[in-house]
Amino acid sequence: MEKTHLAFGKKSMFVLAAFFLCFLFLLYWNTRLPGTRIIVLNDQHLDVYVADTINDMYVGLGGREDLGGKDGMLFIFDFSERHGIVMRDMLFPIDIIWLSDGKVVDIAPAVPLEPGVDEYDLTFYRPRAEATMVLELSAGWAMEHGLQIGDFLTLP
């Protein structure tokens, strides 16, 4: 029986190298930390992660044991809607604050964890009004700082 040898030409090596580079890029893209930004809410300067990609919004703060030295995460949406938030893979409770054009329109304080709950059974937290941004902070922040509906967030 005759053995067949597999020969790689320059074209095959180029395709293999391109595939490998794409793999490395996607690996980096999925493991990078979101950008950060300083915001001002209720006269408090906060250093927050900014979730402005679909992947960052899906993952959110899930899987983290803490805020990693930041004060929270700001989700910026392209359109106004009653954007829902779930506690997928969350390891610590949070306050959820919905904003429309910088104005606080709703607050869900100290949202509890849902360990072991199936994806489709997670509680969906929605605001009473449409919003363009959602801010997640450590549980208790809103009460501790007297945050109320109608307060404003500024992005310096």
Walk me through what this model shows.
- The protein has 156 residues and is α+β, with helices and mostly antiparallel strands.
- The protein has a single domain, classed as Protein of unknown function DUF192 (Jelly Rolls), CATH 2.60.120.1140.
- Helix content is 21%, strand content 33%.
- It has helices at 10-31, 54-59, 141-144; strands at residues 35-41, 44-51, 72-81, 94-100, 103-111, 131-138, 153-154.
- The protein has a seven-stranded mixed β-sheet with strand order 5-4-6-3-2-1-7.
- The longest helix has 22 residues, at 10-31.
- The chain is elongated and about 80 Å long.
- The termini are far apart.
- The relative contact order is 0.19.
- This is DUF192 domain-containing protein.
- The chain crosses the membrane at residues 12-29.
- Keywords: Membrane, Transmembrane, Transmembrane helix.
- InterPro entries: DUF192, Saro_0823-like_sf.
Sheet bearing the most strands, described? Answer: 7 strands, mixed
Would you give the CATH topology?
Answer: Jelly Rolls
The global form is elongated
Overall tally of domains: 1
Distance from N terminus to C terminus (CA atoms, Å) equals 75 Å
The CATH superfamily is known as Protein of unknown function DUF192
- Give the amount of beta strand, in percent: 25-35%
Q: Let me know the number of strands.
A: 7
* Named CATH architecture: Sandwich
Low-confidence stretches: none
* Helix-strand category: alpha+beta
**Overall mean pLDDT score?**
87
The helix tally amounts to 3
Tell me the radius of gyration.
21 Å
Instruction: Trace the largest sheet across and list its strands.
Output: 5-4-6-3-2-1-7
- Which series of helices and strands comes N to C? HEEHEEEEHE
